[in-house]
Write a structure and sequence with these properties.
Blueprint lengths: L1 E2 L8 E8 L8 E9 L4 E2 L2 H5 L2 E4 L5 H30 L5 H11 L9 H20 L12 H14 L3 E2 L21 E2 L3 H10 L1 H19 L7
Antiparallel strand pairs: 1-2, 2-3, 3-4, 3-5, 6-7
Helix pairs in contact: 2-5, 3-7, 4-5, 5-7, 6-7
C-alpha cells in the first residue's frame, strides 16, 4: 500500500527490511522503511526513528518473531506521520544559500580542520548532493524541483546510488549525467556493492541519511512547516 506522494508523481511505498546473520552471532532485525519509488532510495528516517523488532537466536526465536505480527497495527500511524512530513518538505522552497546551509549541516567539516583529504571528501559530498538536488531522479518534477524534499532525497540518492565515495576536487556536472564509477577526472572512488549496502543500511551512509532527515526537520520547522515527531 503506497503512501500518498508529496508532489507530482513522486510516490513513496511501504517496505519491510529483514536483517539476519547466518552464523547466529547477531540478532534478527525487522525494520519498516518507506522507499521513494522514483529512484528507489531508502528513506532512513523510518530505520532510525521507527519501530524495530529484534529477535535473538535462541530457543524462543519464533516466539519473538511473532511479536512483529502483533506490532503491525502500530505501523500505520507512523507512516501517516511520515506522509505529512514528506508533504511539509515539499512545501519548503530552497534558495542556493539555504541549500548550502542545509548541506553544511548534513556534511559537517572534519574535526581536524587541517586535514585536507577530509575536507576534499566533505566538499565533494556537498557538491554531488547539490547536483542530485537539481538533477536527481524525480527531482526535476513540478512540485519537487528546488524544494527541501528534493534536497533530502538528493543526499539519499548520493548515499544509496551515487558513484562511490566522492573524493578529490569537484567536477563540473553542468546538467550532464554523473560520470561513471571510477572514471578519470570524476573525483570518485568505486565502492563494492556489498559494502555500499552495508553502509546504506547500518553504517556511514545510514548515519548520513539520519543527519539529512534531522536537518530537514529543522529547516521545515524554521519555515513554519511543523513535522510530526
Amino acid at each position: 500500500m503506497a503512501l500518498r506522494w508529496p508532489a507530482g508523481r513522486d510516490r513513496v511505498e511501504k517496505f519491510l527490511l529483514l536483517s539476519n546473520s547466518h552464523d547466529g552471532e547477531s540478532a534478527v532485525q525487522v525494520k519498516f522503511t518507506p522507499i521513494r519509488v522514483v529512484c528507489g532510495n531508502t528513506l532512513t528516517q523510518a530505520l532510525s526513528r521507527g519501530f524495530t523488532h529484534t529477535a535473538r537466536h535462541d530457543r524462543d526465536l519464533w516466539g519473538e518473531l511473532r511479536g512483529v505480527q502483533e506490532a503491525m497495527g502500530l505501523i500505520k500511524g507512523r507512516y501517516d506521520d511520515l506522509a505529512r512530513a514528506f508533504d511539509a518538505f515539499a512545501r519548503v522552497p530552497l534558495a542556493e544559500a539555504a541549500l548550502a546551509a542545509y548541506l553544511e549541516e548534513v556534511f559537517p567539516g572534519p574535526a581536524d580542520v587541517d586535514d585536507e583529504r577530509a575536507w576534499e571528501r566533505v566538499d565533494a559530498s556537498r557538491h554531488w548532493s547539490a547536483w542530485f538536488w537539481r538533477h536527481g531522479k524525480g527531482n526535476e518534477e513540478a512540485g519537487v524541483a528546488g524544494t527541501l524534499w528534493a534536497a533530502y532525497n538528493g543526499v539519499c540518492e548520493l548515499v544509496d546510488h551515487g558513484a562511490g565515495q566522492a573524493l578529490g576536487p569537484r567536477a563540473a556536472a553542468n546538467g550532464r549525467e554523473l560520470p561513471a564509477q571510477g572514471a578519470r577526472g570524476s573525483g570518485l572512488r568505486v565502492t563494492p556493492p556489498e559494502r555500499r549496502l552495508e553502509s546504506c543500511w547500518f553504517g556511514t551512509g545510514y548515519r548520513t541519511k539520519v543527519r539529512a532527515w534531522d536537518a530537514a526537520v529543522k529547516v521545515a520547522h524554521a519555515k513554519g512547516q511543523p513535522v510530526p515527531a
